Amino acid sequence: MIPKYPAEWRTQSLWKKRFYARYMKWLERLGYTVVTLVLGAFVFAFNYRVDDVISADKVAIKAASTVMTLEEPVLVVRSMVRSFDEVTVGEPVLEIIRGAEAIDRYVAGQALGRLGAKTEFAMPKPEIITAGSAGVFVIDESFIGQVVDQGETICEIRNYDELELTAALAGQGVAAAKAGGVAKLKNPAVSSPNSILVRGKTAGGALVSGRLFSPEQAELIGSSVKGMALGVRDDLPLEVESLVQLQIDADLSLGSGGGENSIQADPPASSQFQADVVVGKHLAVIQFARLSQAKQEEVNRAIQSALNQRSVVDWSGSAQKVDSLSGLNTVFQVNAVPSKGSSGSEKVEGTAISRTFEAKLKIKSPSEALKRVVRDADVLGQTVTVRVELKTGDRPIAMLLLKRS
Fold it and tell me: Which of 79, 173, 237, 351 gives a 20 to 30 Å CA spacing to 39?
């Protein structure tokens, strides 16, 4: 054993000798600390668990509705209730003529009446339709006086006390998704009919709305900038053609007042709601190329039967005929659903092109403000959307990071 290192092994630099003599102890401690932290990070990464979440963006919130359809054509004579008015059970809502023959007779009778013809032509009397449930009556105004085909929705009764969503959820843990869970709804947004968004700061907090401007006002603002010259780097000289979007930030001073035409403000972006997963089903699009020999031969025979002797016109315009096929390669993309049981047959290895869990959700005890937002948006033909997140399990953060890498 060598009691001390030979001189040629040791540095000859004076400042290095001084540095090592004074700080070597701290350098050793720093090294031990770094190694300890690295080992601790590994232990932490394999013990700290994070949620597996599947999600979907821009999912529309809809009111639960009862739809009225008939198995025969219907002429909507008139609506006895305005669209988006409240109705009660049994309240008359529509006058209709049911059936193709009755519709023809009714239309013919109306035509004869307009011409002033005197005839004993018997017109069918309109049938009165009543509301089957209480709620908000909704009908497309363009249907009035028109014939609605059989099976097509004539009108509906919406219940804004029950708000629902249908989301195609995707993510790493989608295979573990099932009905009965509770999803989080985040980032609510209301579409704007005018593409003008107002973000106001008030004493009571933020006020956000995309419906404070009428179409006429939006057009006026757009016309004020139309034709303005624009300078864009490395581009042609441009000018404004039309307004796409305008965002307005302002400090608002609010006072008491308002009326029936008041606009309901949008929900804050930080709002969160909860929804129960009522039902759900797994959907997948799978791609595969390798089949068993017997199945591949069956597929090849079907392809040859379909293409053999088929006439085609090639790109040059000349007519050709398929005489024979060889070197067949097949790649399948199929819709897949969970198996009901093992069939005992050999499994085909495939790759998932898309994998989702289609869930129907129901919002838990929606607030009055949310009900008003959804109803006002429906009246204007707009939508209220949210981001849906559903927890399907958890896993160590190290496994999540390794999978992403």
Answer: 173
Percent of the chain with pLDDT over 70: 94
* pTM value > 0.85: no
Give residue 291's identity as a one-letter amino acid code.
Answer: L
- Residues 86 and 135: their CA atoms lie apart, in Å, by 6
**Three-state secondary structure of 325-369:** CCCCCCCEEEEECCCCCCCCCCCCCCEEEEEEEEEEEEECCCCHH
**Which are the contacts of 137, defined by CB distance < 8 A and separation ≥ 6?**
81, 82, 83, 84, 85, 86, 87, 93, 131, 155, 157
Amino acid identity, residue 290?
R
Q: What local confidence, expressed as pLDDT, does residue 340 receive?
A: 78
The rounded distance, in Å, linking the Cα atoms of 132 and 134 is 7
Q: What is the pLDDT of residue 21?
A: 76
Nearest to 345 by CA among 298, 295, 302, 297: 295
Give the per-residue pLDDT at 370: 92
Q: Which two tokens stand for residue 203?
A: 């004493």
DSSP output for 125-175: PPEEEE-SSSEEEE--GGGTTSEEPTTS--EEEEEEEEEEEEEEEBSTTGG
Taking alpha carbons only, the member of 356, 351, 389, 334 closest to residue 174 is: 356
Quick one: tokens of 152?
A: 């097509």
Task: Identify the residue with better confidence: 216 or 341.
Answer: 216
Tokens of 3: 């009691």
